[in-house]
Amino acid sequence: MSSGRxxxxxxxxxxxxxxxxxxxxxxxxxxxxxxxxxxxVQDEIGQNVAxxxxxxxxxxxxxxxxxxxxxxxxxxLTVEKHGRIDVLFSNAGVLEKQQGSILDLDLxxxxxxxxxxxxxxxxxxxxxxxSMVESGTRGSIVCTTxxxxxxxxxxxxxxxxxxxxxxxxxxxxxxxxxELGKHGIRVNGVAPFGxxxxxxxxxxxxxxxxxxxxxxxxxxxxxxxxxxxxVAEAALFLASDDSAYVSGHNLAVDGGYTVVKP
Length: 262
Known about the structure:
The protein is α/β, with parallel strands linked by helices. It has helices at residues 20-31, 43-53, 68-82, 107-135, 160-180, 198-204, 208-218, 228-239, 257-260, and strands at 11-15, 35-40, 58-62, 87-90, 140-144, 186-192, 250-253. 45% of the residues are buried.
């Protein structure tokens, strides 16, 4: 998939691009000809990713997606450097610090999750879409949702705030797609099953191998372990012209999990 240069000459912003799915997307998108701007708060890690890929291909900007001023500045800096934005991959996300029953829900933590996973995505969609409309760019916006945007009820394995944020994000994707279509801008989601990313490992306080074993035991599709690269490849499809008439869609990368689970 990475040999087709499917984003040749495209300018891409990836939020949460310092690690996990975002970092894999940065690598894959540049392999496909894109110039990438990583927007993240993990400065050292993000800068190291940029250096490892090549600073002629990747730039790193510190950006807390909860701060609309920082979001607006990241968009402005990208446009000043590259002239336009063709693709937004809104991937930044967090889990609850403490997972547990709805009866003990920590609303401060809930607000933090919603601020990153939903409000942060909304801020980037707002400012990137403004830029696309002003420049006449027929762009693509892709957001990382989750199987938790389709199903719920797993309690501690899929925390309540995270589930709520991803359901809301899917609604935002559909709403934005409905408005932005008249400008030729597509908005889609990519919905992965569980992956052993640093965020998930930290959230579950387990090492990557054990996380993969756990999710594989729960998976519908056997014989393959879901990796960040698989999700990045789905995001590449939605970012590229291969999906030129796809908008308002939430592409499941879940091995059929949400189809067969109640």
